[in-house]
């Protein structure tokens, strides 16, 4: 049994670190602060809104109408109709915006579409480029906030990107919406209050042109936002979070479409963890950049369900071993870290999440996590490597 205890402690440390990072970020986010003052829209620089779109005829009109209300004279909107086989391009032109049509079936993914859009902008570049997905809506003053922050910081800016559970969706989508709130709002808000950068989220992003023109965009990573975050951070351009610039998407109602979306996000996150963390830590050591360590720790927090399932399984194994005569200290250490993270998540739920995840749906959380076990097992056997578009629902009345 002599070698088992050191192995147990290695496992405990590997799991306790992301639990503690998660807890620290969440606790840092719960302090109440006043919203940032609205920027003067009349004084903001000229911007371009870049909208990558692949077969988005069901939703592109809503997005364009939403954005048009925030445009200033001289702004541009460019829709990149990427390998479209539907009416996306025609609908965008009917709304009076620029359309760049791209056809390349061998190189698929948002990264390639963004690089194509960048080429379309290069002849008359704006001061700031804002990227918004074709299925998202922007909150009031979001465009102005993103542009003002990017101009002031001279680095990438990420707005608050939240997912909404449609009214007809079940409680599992409510749990998913809360997990999204933790990942895309509470944790980056905590990092901002700790003076650290955040991860890009794929939409609601703003880039000064000097940054955007040289950004490594043209790749087919299935979660291009995480890959781009790592690449930019290694260049000294870690993104900053703008919590008051809100962008919202909506989960698919269809379970199969939701499963495709979830598999792409979570498999991609796990792949970036394996590749990005060593890069960030090595660069942090060689260049003595503490901010890269903080970003590596943030990237190292697995998807919430994967973390909960893994910690629960390890605690069960360690508990059985301790009951049979093994040490109780590893159980206590990992259990304490888990309790710390649990209290932090409960605090975030009380502060921000009660409208997203009603108290009556809290009992669904363990079942929601358990349903993801096949997803994580599939990652071990056959991880998803290619970008796959999420099918869209028919638009529905939200009134």
TrEMBL record:
This is Glycosyltransferase. Keywords: Glycosyltransferase, Membrane, Transferase, Transmembrane, Transmembrane helix. The chain crosses the membrane at residues 6-30, 306-324, 331-352. Pfam families: Glyco_tranf_2_3 (PF13641). InterPro entries: Glycosyltransferase_2 (IPR050256), Nucleotide-diphossugar_trans (IPR029044). It comes from Gemmata palustris. GO terms for molecular function: glycosyltransferase activity. It comes from the Bacteria. It is an enzyme of class 2 (transferase). Its EC number is 2.4.-.-. The lineage of its organism: Bacteria, Pseudomonadati, Planctomycetota, Planctomycetia, Gemmatales. The keyword Transport does not apply. Signal peptide: none annotated. The keyword Hydrolase does not apply.
């Amino acid at each position: 049994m002599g070698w088992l205890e050191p192995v147990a402690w290695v496992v405990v440390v590997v799991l306790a670190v992301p639990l503690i990072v998660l807890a620290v970020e969440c606790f840092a986010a719960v302090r109440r602060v006043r919203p940032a003052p609205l920027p003067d829209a009349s004084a903001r620089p000229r911007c371009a809104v870049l909208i990558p779109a692949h077969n988005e005829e069901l939703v592109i009109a809503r997005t364009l109408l939403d954005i048009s209300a925030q445009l200033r004279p001289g702004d541009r909107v460019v829709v990149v109709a990427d390998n479209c086989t539907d009416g996306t391009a025609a609908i965008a032109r009917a709304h009076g915006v620029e359309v760049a049509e791209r056809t390349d079936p061998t190189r698929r993914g948002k990264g390639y579409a963004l690089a194509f859009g960048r080429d379309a902008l290069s002849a008359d570049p704006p001061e700031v480029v804002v990227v918004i997905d074709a299925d998202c809506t922007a909150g009031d003053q979001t465009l102005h906030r993103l542009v003002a922050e990017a101009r002031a910081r001279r680095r990438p800016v990420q707005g608050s990107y939240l997912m909404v559970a449609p009214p007809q969706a079940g409680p599992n989508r409510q749990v998913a919406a809360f997990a999204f709130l933790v990942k895309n709002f509470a944790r980056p808000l905590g990092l901002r209050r700790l003076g650290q950068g955040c991860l890009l989220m794929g939409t609601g992003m703003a880039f000064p042109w000097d940054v955007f023109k040289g950004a490594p965009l043209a790749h087919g990573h299935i979660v291009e936002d995480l890959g781009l975050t790592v690449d930019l951070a290694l260049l000294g351009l870690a993104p900053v979070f703008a919590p008051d610039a809100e962008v919202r998407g909506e989960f698919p109602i269809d379970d199969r479409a939701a499963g495709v979306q979830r598999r792409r996000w979570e498999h991609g996150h796990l792949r970036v963890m394996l590749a990005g963390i060593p890069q960030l830590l090595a660069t942090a050591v060689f260049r003595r950049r503490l901010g890269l360590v903080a970003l590596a720790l943030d990237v190292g927090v697995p998807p919430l369900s994967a973390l909960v399932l893994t910690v629960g399984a390890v605690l069960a194994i360690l508990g059985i071993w301790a009951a049979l005569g093994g040490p109780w200290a590893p159980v206590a250490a990992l259990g304490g870290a888990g309790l710390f993270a649990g209290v932090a998540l409960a605090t975030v739920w009380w502060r921000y999440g009660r409208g997203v995840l009603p108290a009556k749906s809290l009992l669904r959380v363990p079942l929601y996590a358990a349903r993801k076990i096949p997803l994580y097992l599939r990652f071990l056997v056959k991880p998803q490597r290619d970008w796959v578009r999420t099918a869209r629902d028919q638009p529905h009345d939200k009134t």
